[in-house]
Amino acid sequence: xxxxxxxTPELKTLGDVVRWVIAELGAMCPSPERLAAYFxxxxxxxxxDVRYHVEEARCPICRAERETMQRATSD
Length: 75
Known about the structure:
By secondary structure, this protein is mainly alpha-helical. It has helices at about 15-25, 30-40, 50-55, 60-75.
């Protein structure tokens, strides 16, 4: 690697920063109860932070949990 070169991608927006933090550094996920409440009612205004975490920041852990929950309820 060249001196001064960085592995950090160009971060232009807050969303870029949040996605990078989640992908590279991990992030604080909502509790299982809040996550389940969001999946049950994604329009609940009190769960806007969870919606952002899952939909905008695209947390892979929580998105995988949603898939697991969906499979469990479809069986």
